[in-house]
Amino acid sequence: xxxxxxxxGGGVAGLSAGIYAKLNGFDAEIxxxxxxxxxxxxxxxxxxxxxxxxxxxxVGTRKGPFNDIWRETNVLNDNVEIVDHxxxxxxxxxxxxxxxxxxxLARWEEYLCxxxxxxxxxxxxxxGDMKKSAFxxxxxxxxxxRKIGNTIKSGFGMMPVMILFMKYGRKSCExxxxxxxxxNEDLNFFxxxxxxxxxxxxxxxxxxxxxxxxxxxxxxxxxxxxxxQRMTNWYIGLGGILRAKSTVSKIMVEDDTAKGVVLSxxxxxxxxxxxxxxxxxxxxxxxxxxxxxxxxxxxAYEKWELFTPIVQVSFGINKIIESDVPVETWxxxxxxxxxxxxxxxxxxxxxxxxxxxxxxxxSVIVIRFDSPWDLWKDLxxxxxxxxxxxxxxxxxxxxxxxxxGISDAIEVCDVATPVTDVSYTGVWKGSYEGFLPSSKNxxxxxxxxxxxxxxxxxxxxxxxxxxxxxxxGQSGKWAVQYICKEEKMMFKAS
Length: 494
Ligand SMILES: Cc1cc2nc3c(=O)[nH]c(=O)nc-3n(C[C@H](O)[C@H](O)[C@H](O)COP(=O)(O)OP(=O)(O)OC[C@H]3O[C@@H](n4cnc5c(N)ncnc54)[C@H](O)[C@@H]3O)c2cc1C
Fold this sequence. Notes:
Blueprint: E1 4-8, H1 12-23, E2 27-31, E3 43-46, E4 49-52, E5 58-59, H2 64-72, E6 82-83, E7 87-93, E8 98-102, H3 105-115, H4 120-132, H5 148-157, H6 159-168, H7 173-180, H8 185-195, H9 202-213, E9 217-220, H10 224-237, E10 241-243, E11 248-254, E12 257-263, E13 268-270, E14 273-276, H11 280-287, H12 295-303, E15 310-317, E16 327-331, E17 336-337, E18 340-341, E19 345-350, E20 363-370, H13 381-402, E21 410-416, H14 418-425, E22 456-458, H15 469-486
Parallel strand pairs: 1-2, 1-14, 2-10, 7-16, 14-22
Antiparallel strand pairs: 3-4, 5-9, 6-9, 7-8, 11-12, 12-13, 15-20, 15-21, 16-19, 17-18, 19-20
The structure holds flavin-adenine dinucleotide.
Flavin-adenine dinucleotide is lined by residues 8-14, 31-34, 39-41, 53-58, 247-248, 277-279, 282, 310, 425-427, 432-433, 460-461, 467-470, 472.
């Protein structure tokens, strides 16, 4: 008889775990509290418009171990069209100064050197660091299951990048830019505006550009929802069971061995193995009552900084609005939108590059800004409704400023808040990507196992500071690799 794996959560990590569980002959059941799968990787439809929540770039669209995962889980197939943007973001200051971040490093270097010739040497050094980090290859197999030969081979391949690890692994972007010591004030201003005053890892910043430069972090036409649907269809096609609209409230444990789950309606589901791909905090501290933790886990959940939640205001517009860049970030620190005083400012995303987002002749434009969880966590229902109305009002003004005359063409406006995210996915404090990758944690991933608990694995963004779709997909695969090892089975990826 095939052994049964119960997977808590049908986000990208849970779907990945389910697919690999089925590919390896297990019975698999995903329990998802929402009516649709995808978790953070989602979108919603309003009056013919699609408002996407997640996907802007997917590491692994071209090559490498993440690409293998996306192909094995049907995220990528021959019918999926990939767009590699030329521009990552355009930053715009309050006085109208503009600064472009290109995805091609040679082009960005040339642009920067022309813009601030006095810093040519330092610009070349920064872009050189970014190019070098292309040598960094994620491991295919999880810690403990890597073949020595592969580890040595990867180690040699990554030699050039080791220096970067040593130099910048424990540095923030702010320290990195300070060390580069650009003379030009505008350059310092724009670079430091990207992450504001947060302790964002310099290495994570540097590596991001290597992926773009290799055209290995593209956008998938259709966006997040079809991506999650392709995974779901593949999982169900392989015989996986999906129990939607069902919330796990407790993980049953006997003799420090996970035995099954209890749902919020009190029903129990027995399992030989459990993989929790749900929110990390609620898994460890609620479903398991905080019994299986160690110093590292405690420290992470108590001390590591989280991604600040976001508010997303989506507009459906009854005319074509062109844009030469996918994202504009307006640097307006301290601007008030609803009750939020922005840290850095807000972003405007024009989806004109994806024809599936709006009916023909129409456009989707989205405004996003960070909004701390503390503002939202105790908001009463009437105040919440009024806050959404105020945000819509303020966002309309912002949009009109950017695209004068657009207001008359707005057909739909939708406001999604950190509360929306928490109620649909249970994500802790609305932190949509989990732990911020910082100078303190970038190289400190959390383990897939919890200390002292058998037959139980974790998957999902909370294991890896920085979160994102690739670690979610990878951790689902890794959990099944560990289970295959326990069962003395050869792991199969296809
Ligand atoms: C605005 C935004 C933009 C982003 N942009 C990108 C991007 O461009 N590129 C990128 O790589 N990443 C991006 N991300 C991050 C990425 O979406 C997430 O890191 C990733 O989807 C996390 O997947 P996950 O499966 O680990 O967690 P989740 O997506 O949070 O999935 C967890 C699932 O578990 C379910 N669940 C929770 N508790 C329970 C329970 N008790 N019982 C049953 N089910 C439960 C939830 O409903 C959810 O479906 C973005 C995220 C957001 C929100």
